Amino acid sequence: MLGIRVFIRMPSPLKWNKNRQPFSSFSRNLNQQPFLVSNSSSWSSDNYYNCKHNVSPHTIIRSFSAKDKAITQESNTGLTVAILGPTNAGKSTLFNRLMCKESNRSYRLSSEKKSHKAKRSRGRIGSNNNPSSRVGGAIVSSTPGTTRDRRECIGRIGGTYFALVDTAGVDSERIDLLTQGKSRKDPMEVEMMKQTLEAARNADLIFLMFDAKIGVTTDLAETCRWLRKVGAHAWTDNVNKVDNDDNDNNDTVEGDDGWKRKVVILANKLEGDAWSNYYDESSTVVENLSEVSRMGFGEAIPISAEHGEGLADMGQIIADMTAKKHAYFGLPYSDDDDNNEEEEETEGVKKEKERPLRLAILGRQNVGKSTLVNALLKQDRVIAGDKPGLTRDAIAVNWSWNGRPVHLVDTAGIRRMAKRDHTDNIEDLAVRDAMRAMKVADVAVLILDAEAKMLQRQELAIADAVVREGRCLVVVANKMDLLVDAEYSSDEYAAGVRQQVEGRFPMLRSTPVVAMSSLTGECVEDLMPVVFNARDRWSQVINTALLNRWMIDVVEGQSPPMVNGRQAKIKYIMQTKGRPPTFLLFCNVEALPASYMRYLNRNFQETFGMFGMEVRMAIKTSTNPYHDKNDKKRGGMGVGGRDQRKARMIAELKSNGKPKKKGVRRRMQRR
Fold first, then answer.
1. Could you give the count of Cα atoms lying within 13 Å of 84 in the half-sphere of its Cβ?
2. What phi and psi, each to the nearest 5 degrees, are found at residue 218?
3. What residues contact 472, with CB distance under 8 A and at least 6 apart?
């Protein structure tokens, strides 16, 4: 299989300016080298091939295979890019622009492909937001401070894959709170800055974004000072240069291993080239770009994250950093298609064994979802607290449990429509993210709150959505430390929860229930074995012979009822697919009664242990070879029969607004 190649079209004819100054564009460069100037409006992208770097511009026009993706996704030596900046600078918009839709499954799902005239969902887990407005990715809103947690994904630009990190906004007040370490007013601000600090320390390339139309603010200046202090603290001053190209620049810091990390400033919200007019007195963008170049991280790159302008310059920098890091650590960076084909075949054999378990954590607000994620990971990966609604984005974390890969997703709390905050669409977008994480997951964990002491209708609605979507469900009874004592054990607590689930939702009988306390960590280790067992049952493929033997026993116990005066017969059964388990019944009738289908589902779940999931059974009618297709019952008198008369009456109503008058029936007179 040939590798995929990405080609970027060359821009319109380029020409040199005599004085190395642009005619209608602001002059800037990345490594203090002259560059070409284009007459095109999207000059930032056009000058991509003209920056003089050691890595050829054709580096990004290269074939890539699963080997390159594995280096970035699984190895710790892959390039990590973090996006930092003040609030409302466009960080989440750029994050969505650079996100690889295929690797992160952020493409539009089949259930989301609805017509524009479709009514918006008003149910308990529905959303007021238009489904076509956004698909996957981080939540984007004009409200400052929308992003709170550190969100990671696989980024891609051209043929280069890298780890991409979106962070919360950084300002001077949050930096002061971080240095103090405590905040009585809002401890969430300190946790947000800790997540941003962790992203800055682990990044190889930091994109510092700001609004170019606003210019250099106090928050941006404090952020630059804070980044230099973070670099001095996180990375020592060991000098071990990879090359001598950037020795004169002070926009890099050295790590403990000698690897050079770089900070690049991005001037966002610059669409087209009208802002670069020197003679426009009302425009202060050129002055802002000149001022930001004195911040100590070199000159800014003008981009527009919303419209995708200037990404080619970023792609060149990412390709350069990737090539340098591969060369520094001695990683293979080959374009040999033959080797790629062999590696893809080998990976195809091991794909199913190495396929990570996709686990989504769902529930109402303030039931302990983020606390459970931190307890499983044994680190403060996501923000957790007593305040409801802390989590907004669906935070995905790649994790390994006993050597088995897990794709863990923490989601926002799901409230019913009437109780949501409708001042903005942030909560609706958060609910959509949570439901989307459930749709692409293998197993969904529904967390119940012990303080409620009763199963809520909202939790039943979430469980019903999980089962109807075809996912496997595991119930977690959290906060058992509030109820369990010497006289009341955790097993009794789990049995009581299971009894409530079966009483309120009979379809979820015998669903696995794990009682735990995510705050104290008690019984948290019992969750993952149950989850992997549920995934194995959900994805198993049953032999056809075993299925037909089971069907014979079931039919002997209770035969199918009469359907339209005809005895129904089930001739054959086979499994068409797993995940979710789907079966096809060959019958002599078009449909079986709902009561008998429930009988089959219940018996099947008890026989094969398919609890906590929906068993889908479809019916296919077998044709009678001796049946004459032309012998059809007309169903009444008149031309075409009863159905045709009804169709003609409907057409007459649509055209004239009233039915046609019935004529006088003429009787045949005997001669």
1. 34
2. -65, -35
3. 442, 443, 444, 534, 535, 537, 538, 580, 612, 613
- Contact in structure between 458 and 414 (CB atoms under 8 Å): yes
Distance of CA 617 to the CA centre of its chain: 29
User: Per-residue pLDDT for 487 more than 90?
Assistant: no
How many whole angstroms separate alpha carbon 343 and alpha carbon 326? 19
Q: What Cα–Cα distance (Å) separates residue 456 from each residue in 315, 436, 447, 482?
A: 49, 22, 11, 18
SS3 assignment, position 352:
helix
Report the C-alpha gap between 337 and 344 in whole angstroms: 10
Residues 6+ apart with CB under 8 A from 215: 284, 287, 288, 291, 292
Please tell me what DSSP assigns to residue 627. -
Residue that is written with structure tokens 């045709």 in the block: 644
Instruction: Report the share of the chain in percent with pLDDT over 70.
Output: 70
Pick from 296, 302, 305, 299: nearest CA to 221: 296
Residue 88: name the closest of 171, 208, 169, 196 by CA.
169
Task: Decide if pLDDT at 13 tops 50.
Answer: no
Taking the C-alpha atoms of residue 274 and residue 54, their distance in angstroms, rounded to an integer, is 32
580 preceded by cis ω (within 30°)?
Answer: yes
Q: Distance (Å, rounded) from C-alpha 21 to C-alpha 286?
A: 13
Place of tokens 């199963």: 455
The whole-number pLDDT of residue 353 equals: 55
Number of Cβ within 10 Å of residue 527's Cβ equals: 21
Average pLDDT over residues 455-472: 90
Burial 299-318 (b: 16+ CB within 10 A, else e): bbbbbbbeeebbbbbbbbbb
Q: Which two tokens stand for residue 634?
A: 């007309």
What's the pLDDT score for residue 111?
A: 62
Q: What is the pLDDT of residues 254-282, one digit of tens each?
A: 554 556 678 999 999 888 776 766 555 56
**Count of residues making up the chain:** 671
Per-residue pLDDT reduced to its tens digit, 514-570? 999 999 888 899 999 999 999 999 999 999 999 999 999 999 999 999 988 888 999
Q: Which pLDDT belongs to residue 387? A: 87
Residue-wise pLDDT for 209-263, tens only, equals 999 888 888 888 888 888 887 763 333 333 333 343 444 444 555 554 556 678 9
Closest listed residue to residue 267, CA positions, set 296, 292, 294? 292
Structure token digits, residue 13: 């004819």
Specify the DSSP element, H or E, that contains 430.
helix 426-439
Amino acid letter, residue 124: R
